[in-house]
Amino acid sequence: MSTSRGRHRRTRTLSAAVAAAVAAGGVGVWAAAAPDDAGAAGAVVVSTTAQLEEAFAAAGPGTTIQLRGGTYYPAKSLKSQADGTAQRRITVTAHGSEKPVVDGSKLPAGEWLVAIGGDHWTLSGLTFRNSRAHGVVVTSSVGGIFRNLTTHGNGDSGFTLRGEGTRDNLIENLDSYGNYDAKNHGQNADGLAIKFGSGTGNRVVGARLYNNADDGVDLWQWASPVRIERSWAYGNGVNRWKDPAFEGNGNGFKLGGGGASAAHVVTGNAAWDNSKHGFTENSNPGALRLHRNTAYANDASGYYFATSPSRLSRNLALDNATGAVKLSPRVVSAANTWDTGRARPAGLRNTDPTSAYGPRRADGSLPATTFLATGTPDIGAEMK
């Protein structure tokens, strides 16, 4: 959101609880200018839910909130419309190498666990789980960095970007899994949703989006290009919740829908074991670009691009239930496995995904694996 709109430019004061923590020199330490300075920056280390709620609500340009390891149970949504700036970001992060978890199981029904409507936020090293609605929702925001996050077990999508003017956000090394919307029988809960809005420069890198009720990635009604790189979507759309009226879609990468036209760029990704397509335009009429992706053992097509003028190059499709591809005559298809007539590259030797399910590397990047790796730059995802 633009900083020119005059939102939330109010003076901030700290509560007695936080002030006491400062005085004690213990779990909460604020470093800030005078309370009547509207641009005051602060930093706080929190170890209780009350401190987290207080710090989140008070955040402004330059604030850093560090969460100690443990589990936090907010009683209301962690909401903020505050803007940081490119030079003075608002940062919410783990304290050192600790592993904080923010659990939404005590939220009222329908409340999102985290709702951010400001610019230049950073969230990193945190887990958000068990909301009865959405996990993390970022709306009409600019310049966000969302790195090394986990969202799971939420009652709608794990992580969502939405709204007009949502631009230049980076989602890196996200694990989002096991999200299920019971009230809609799994129809809406995606691992990552970039929906109902527009804005350029949004980028997804190194995500694992798996075992969600609906899709791994869903770009429904997003009217601007999104770039998705080196991410994996698997096991989506399977009825793990024993819902007799289950309606989850189960695409790995759903790249449109709802009438929006956008030329998304999708490169170096893999989709496997999804209950529908690996990659689909989903009626997006834009000229999408898919390069060096891999679709393996999905329950429908590897690539479903039945209407768009997209370009697919050097992609791999193997053992998908209804075939490698469904392509419009308008699609430009070049040097893919179905073009070469060689379905399985000689260098592809490992179809056991076990290593891909392991822990991430120390820097948060995807685990080392030879699963589906082709050993050549000529075709398919590198799987790293």
UniProtKB/TrEMBL annotation:
Residues 342-384 are annotated as: Disordered. One of its GO terms (molecular function) is carbon-oxygen lyase activity, acting on polysaccharides. GO terms for cellular component: extracellular region. Residues 117-279 form the Right handed beta helix domain. It is found in: Secreted. Its cofactor is Ca(2+). Residues 1-31 form the signal peptide. Keywords: Calcium, Lyase, Metal-binding, Secreted, Signal. Pfam families: Beta_helix. Belongs to the polysaccharide lyase 9 family. This is Secreted pectate lyase. It comes from Streptomyces filamentosus NRRL 15998.
